[in-house]
Amino acid sequence: MHPALQALFVIVVGVGGCVTYFYASNLLLDKVLFPASGPNAGRNTNRANMIRPWLFLFPALFLLSLYLAYPVFATAWLSLFAKNGDFVGLGNYTRMFGEPKFGESLANNILWLIVVPAAATAFGLLAAQLTDRIKWGNFAKSLIFMPMAISFVGASVIFKLIYDSREADLSQIGLINAVWLKFDGGVGSFLMLRLVPFLLIGCLLLAITWAGWSVLRPLLRGQGDGLLVKAARILGALVAAFLAFELGIWLYGIATNDLPFGQPQVWLQKPYWNNFFLMAVLVWIQTGFAMVILSAALRGVPEDTIEAATIDGANPFQIFFKIKVPQIMGTIIVVWTTITITVLKVFDIVLAMTNGQWETQVLANYMYDKLFRALDWGMGSASAMIIMLLVTPILIWNVVNARKEMR
Amino acid sequence: MDGIVGKKSGLVWAVHLSTLALVILWVVPTFGLLVSSFRTGDQIVGSGWWRSLSTQVQQLSPVRISGDEAEKDGVFVIEGQLFVAGTDVGAWGTSSREPEAFGPGASTDLGDGVTLTVGADGSFVLTSPTSMADLRMPRVFATASTPPEFTLKNYANVISSPLAGQSIGQAFLNTLTVAIPATIIPILVAAFAAYALAWMDFPGRALLVAFVVGLLVVPLQLALIPLLQFHNWIGIGKGYLGIWMAHTGFGLPLAIYLLRNYMVGLPRDIIENAKVDGATDFQIFTKIILPLSFPALASFAIFQFLWTWNDLLVALVFLGTGNDQQVLTGNIVNLMGSRGGDWEILSASAFVSIAVPLAVFFSMQRFLVRGLLAGSVK
Fold first, then answer.
1. What is the residue range of B316's domain?
2. Potential cystine with A130: which of A78, A154, B19, B371 (Cβ 3.0-4.6 Å)?
3. Which of B13, B24, B25, B26 has the most A C-beta neighbours within 10 Å, making it the best mutation to test the interface with A?
């Protein structure tokens, strides 16, 4: 059968099957098993109402358990076996930690985990605040939001053209190289490639240090927060410290690096920096998402708090950072964690652009390599478990919050 | 007072300009690829897409003169055309050291009375007093200006002819075959479950909601091997049936979460009134809840469609790589590997795959935003 016909057939059978299942099982319950008539009508109705939720839930629960819950345990179990089927206990894990490629993936993943959510949230917040009060704001928003619809693979093609590099005597068709070749080491280059970035990065470094400090300060003062909040504060401060350290290195590099002017660069083959070129793709995609959510949150900030601040003489920046941002902190955290989960699963971008070469490997692609190229299911499962381990704190956080809301 | 007003308008300008900069930064990458997809291969490598509207002046690859000689009035002549029609030769030469020695229409003496003339349109005349049968033919280096040229050929090319296993047209159909059932089936399953979790009272409800919320973040990477084993065990192996089921399973947590959150917000009065009037849960669900939940259903459908259309990993693992099974994303990844430099092919292929989600995105953005706000977890 032709796949398209098969698809139609499956739609009809699937939808029809679902409808039939729900309809018939309800009918069976009401008319045959526990009819709401006769001598036991009242008791029967109660019984039927006790069973009915499970009729409604059964197909979904069955699929969820089979397709998401069971695999977690099955993967954990598989990760204990070697390629030839022997039980090796934690052997796969120790072997994996000994592999340099795994260490590289883990280090890169941590870089991704910190940089991408931070950048996407920051750009999203900026875009949300900028577009909030201007006439063409909605139009601007939908253009910034657009990359959400583009696949990671499509985005990789788009950015590969931007990073494209050709020999020095040919005309460059990659935007970045074309701009790069405009710099010749003169005054303009000093201004644009040293002074301005130095000042920008320097400001960013100060801002992040300040943010990290203000997150940590209540803890040092011994403020009576819950354990979870304390842990979040420490984590936040650690992230800030890492970013500050990273930016410090950049700052030093910007001031001292000898730049190879006039030579086109193969951006994706420059270890360490190529990670950032790949991250840019994900930031480009995720910023729209952050913007939409944060923009809704910003609109929800009570007007009277802003008015009160204005009357007290606060400037727009103070209003933004001291009035608005603290009030939408919860939403910022939600956006941040959501992007974090996306980052942990990132696979397509790395596969399409570098396939993990030139020190750009990440966990999800490492896992794919082990599973389907090396055909080592034990090692592959072990690396999948590492991804699961990294997701677990967010999973617990989400479940705790959901339970709080239910009450 | 003046000072404050002045500051305000300055700030407004800054906001407009920063927004404009941000929008340009976000649109330019896609725009560049879109422009490239309408240019010919020569034009793409000849100049950056941002110069696609200007005439290109570029060094053409050298051409060695060839052709049959004819004798005219005791002089041997070879005539012909060096470059494709439409080329405008700006300068030419016969050695790589001096590629721009002569202007169009000029003649040069190559020694032994042999002269070469190259015209502006790329036509050449080589004359010699003796037969040139044994002569080593000269090479012509030329700088030519070519006018901007746009074409739809790239699209025609990638849609119909197989370049990486199969054509993009076939991959498009395969992707559609994957995406549509994988979008429709989870909706119904999830809607019933969401109703039960939102409006029916039974022990363990809170626990089940927590279960669904927990599953929202489970990376589907963990599911690959166990499910592949399971599919092999029940005998469906790799194929469409497997990928439909996998997408359904992976989409369910978000679907249930989104729909439950929406249904909980529906007015309690309507449902209780219906119950008082003797409606069963099944009737309430089909007659009241389902129609009222349309916005939530639509937003989930859009999410799931975009996700299944754009997915690469699930397709690679569950669908196999046969020609009638490769999806658009997989095809493009193959093209990037085998024809990484052929931008006319890559850009057109990428845009075929991007077109549908973009159309869905721009026509249904309202629902997409609403869905995002309702359940921003996946």
1. 156-374
2. B19
3. B26
